[in-house]
Specification:
Chains A, B: This is MarR family transcriptional regulator. The structure is a homodimer. Chain A contains five helices and two strands, in the order ααααββα. Chain A has one domain: Arc Repressor Mutant, subunit A (Orthogonal Bundle). Chain A has a two-stranded antiparallel sheet. The first copy, chain A, is mainly alpha-helical. The interface between A and B is large, with 48 and 48 residues. The structure holds a DNA duplex.
Chain lengths: ~120, ~120
DNA sequence: GCGCAATGATACGGAACCGAAACGGTTGTG
DNA sequence: CACAACCGTTTCGGTTCCGTATCATTGCGC
């Protein structure tokens, strides 16, 4: 667990949100970010329907987010050879770097919080 | 400061984002949330231009966000009596409750993180 | 009183996003 | 083999958001 007081939690959120909206960080929507972090933090395999269930959104939402983040090279699609109905969503080098930097930013903002 | 390791930071972000997109929490855009937290965490006075500068967005963005969050009673507009060109953005009871609950959710998710 | 600048709001065109419906392809079953 | 079920993608109509341009009001200096 991480010990975090309510005011610290809110301040942390504010600072990271401000960094995001000021374009200090690339601008992904909430859902895109949730998808991205899930792919990079949760163990594979990741499928469109799995992600849709996890986020409680419809599959086309995932498809479109994959389109967008695929174009940014943050994620990649691969057809599942064992069942070609499935698309497996994989990590990329660029995506891993993006997620690492995001994590570093959050850590940095946390470090600036009053005790 | 708050001691947070990169993986914890990312996990925290993931869990709160997932809670948000699953509608466990009301769905505000990143910018709306940044505006809301700024009004509730930073000392007044808050003006449209001040918020626009802080977020590095244009004034109509703030106006629209105020429309949306005003309708949700999370924020209120008051014309500044000393200079009637200004609109002062004030806190509301509902907004304070919302922000408090948001903070509690973040704290709860932080409490679930692996050490 | 006038001209100018500042304020926030409104209108406009465009981009991005949503869910529902539809579609084409693949797999499992009888 | 035919059909149902499943998959992800595409289309559709609607909503929300963006920046730019414009507007009405207010304040200030001359």
């Amino acid at each position: 667990m991480v010990a975090l007081r309510p005011l610290q939690a809110l301040r942390l959120w504010q600072q990271v949100c401000l960094a995001e909206v000021r374009n200090e960080m690339p601008d992904l929507s909430e859902r895109q970010l949730a998808i991205l972090l899930t792919v990079y933090l949760d163990p594979p395999p990741h499928t469109v329907r799995g992600l849709a269930e996890k986020l409680k959104v419809t599959k086309p939402v995932i498809t479109r987010a994959l389109d967008t983040m695929g174009a940014m090279r943050l994620l990649a699609r691969h057809r599942d050879e064992e069942d070609r109905r499935n698309v497996l969503i994989r990590r990329t080098v660029e995506g891993a770097l993006f997620v690492e930097r995001f994590g570093d930013t959050v850590v940095a903002k946390a470090g600036e919080l009053a005790p």
